[in-house]
Amino acid sequence: MPPPRSADIAAGRPRPAAGTVWTVVLVAVLAGPALLWLLRSGPQPLWRQLSVVTGLLALSAMVVAATLPSRVRSLSRALGLETLLALHRQLGVLAGALVAAHLATVIAADPTRVTLLDPLVAPARGIAATGASIALTVLLVLALRRSRHRGTHEVWRWLHLLLAAAVLGASALHVLWLGHVVADAVLGPVLAGLGVLLLAVLVSRWLMRAVFDQRSEFRVQEVRTESPTVSTLVLARRGRHSGGGTWFRPGQFAWLRLERHAVEEHPFTIASSAQDTGRVEFTVRHTGDFAGRLRDLPPGEPVWLDGPYGAFTTDGVPGTGLVLIAGGVGITPMMSMLRTAADRGDRRPYRLVVHARDRADLLFRAELAQLRTRLDLRVTEVLRRPALDWDGATGPIDTSLLAATLIDLDDPHRRVDYFVCGNPRLVTDVLDTLTALGVPENRVHTEQFHHV
Fold first, then answer.
1. Is residue 244 a contact partner of residue 341, using CB atoms and an 8 Å limit?
2. What are 48-101's pLDDT values in tens digits?
3. How far apart are the first and last CA of the chain?
4. Per-residue pLDDT at 299 exceeds 70
5. Nearby residues of 352 by Cβ (< 8 Å), 6 or more positions away
6. Helix axes 124-144, 81-109, angle to 10 degrees
7. CA 213 from chain center: how many Å?
8. Of 37, 43, 134, 312, which cross-links 12 as Cys (Cβ 3.0–4.6 Å)?
9. Bridge-partner residues for 429, per DSSP?
10. CA distance 261 to 89
């Protein structure tokens, strides 16, 4: 199951202290260089000052935007994937606006500089700036049109990465060849340090984990059919890494590659218990070529994982009751949560609401019946297109259905946390329903399906 869009994306329950630290760091990187320039530059003509400040802010926004989706695990755990991807998009748009403002203020300071936009006569610094601006414009247009484009995700992803690399590279050359900012005794080393840190993040993301991390290799143990369109991929940890310690938290996800050095990888939510340290399971609906290939993997075949990621997890949540609301294959993280809770002997009440198209789309029914003997668990199944002999709940998950399902948890002394996972429409509808029921926002954790 792919994790949410807007990364995710997984709101989960970020860690407050770590979240505060990371927020301060990101704000410092975003605003620090521009503030340093203002403190050190002395009196300057207004348009010149604005041109430098907007340029530095644009550069900082690009650096932060490139870092957010680069799988820094502590950052992902602290802020949650949904927050990171939302910030990534917002900072990309902000960088575009700042670049436009930078160009406008440069020309306003000296109208003859409009020639810097002509690559036939412009110096190298101007050509670099024009190239970065064009690449950023194309990048933003493609990103904003993505929701309406149904092309191959991998093509879009690699085009996005190549354009981002072009923007960062050309912007760095522009600043370097411009000379006056990097020549500053304080600001120069600060910018160099940011460049080194960004390079370290990218090297870790694209080289160290993919090539040198031996813990990332797993072996296919079996592929178990759950329905005509859904299978569970069971992987065993390799060799000396096959045991010892919890590898992930229930509800998290990992990126899966079929070859160590493959460029194609896809995110799937982990379905197995976090207490099972020797193996990991992914329940996948076979939509698309990559997911379709998974059900044909033979036992013993090596695959590679990068993870875990995400803050959509019941670990650390102080709730004395938990409500899990899933749509379709969105039950995958819920199964990890329930399996882990059963293995840990968790005595808190769990209420699972499953929304599916029809009876054939209901997964894990036999196992859920067994889990009810190990947990304080009640399961409510809701179908959109029920057969004539269906005597369960039907239609959308509305206020009356949830109120009736959760009536036994209606206790002012009990803290109930809600976990919602499914397609964007289901998540939005359930959020509206929970708001109508007066559920506090900080007790609702969401994950929506989308590639990241």
1. no
2. 999 999 999 999 999 999 999 888 878 887 887 778 888 999 999 999 999 999
3. 12
4. yes
5. 323, 324, 325, 326, 331, 334, 338, 368, 377, 378, 379, 380
6. 140
7. 22
8. 312
9. none
10. 28
Please check whether residue 84 is in contact with residue 9, taking contact to mean a CB–CB distance below 8 angstroms: yes
Distance CA 342, CA 450 (A): 29
Q: Which helix (H) or strand (E) holds 292?
A: helix 289-294
Tokens 């939302």 sit on residue: 86
Q: Which DSSP letter does residue 205 get?
A: I
Q: How far is CA 37 from each of CA 33, 40, 51, 105, rounded to the nearest angstrom?
A: 6, 5, 12, 16
Q: Three-state SS for 309?
A: strand
DSSP states along 350-385: EEEEEEESSGGG---HHHHHHHTTTSEEEEEEEESS
DSSP per residue over 37-89, as a string?
Answer: HHHHH-S--HHHHHHHHHHHHHHHHHHHHHHTTS--HHHHHHH-HHHHHHHHH
Q: How far apart are CA 200 and CA 182, in angstroms?
A: 20
- Residue 416 φ then ψ, to 5°: -110, 125
State the Cα–Cα distance between residues 27 and 25, nearest whole angstrom. 6
- How are beta strands 302-309 and 253-257 bridged, if at all? antiparallel
The type of residue at 121 is V
Q: Which letter does DSSP use for residue 112 in this model?
A: G
Look-up of token digits 């604005």: 50
Res 174 pLDDT > 80: yes
Q: What percent of the chain has pLDDT over 70?
A: 90
- The answer to whether the CB of 309 falls within 8 A of the CB of 247 is no
Strand ranges across the sheet with 217-227: 266-269, 253-257, 302-309, 217-227, 230-237, 279-285
Of 215 and 360, the structure prediction assigns the larger pLDDT to 360
β-bridge pairing 349-356 and 376-383: parallel
Q: Under a CB-based contact definition with an 8 Å cutoff, are residues 283 and 332 in contact?
A: yes
Question: Hunting for tokens 């403002």 — which residue is that?
Answer: 101
Structure tokens at 442: 């900080």
CA distances from 232 to 338, 356, 360 (A): 17, 18, 16
The Cβ-side half-sphere exposure at 235, using a 13 Å CA radius, reads 28
Q: How far apart are CA 58 and CA 363, in angstroms?
A: 48
Q: List the structure tokens of 158.
A: 């690699």
Query: Which range has highest mean pLDDT (31-35, 148-152, 208-212, 317-321)?
Result: 31-35
The whole-angstrom separation of Cα 246 and Cα 328 is: 27
What is the Cα 27 distance to its own chain's centre?
A: 20
- 372 or 237, greater pLDDT: 372
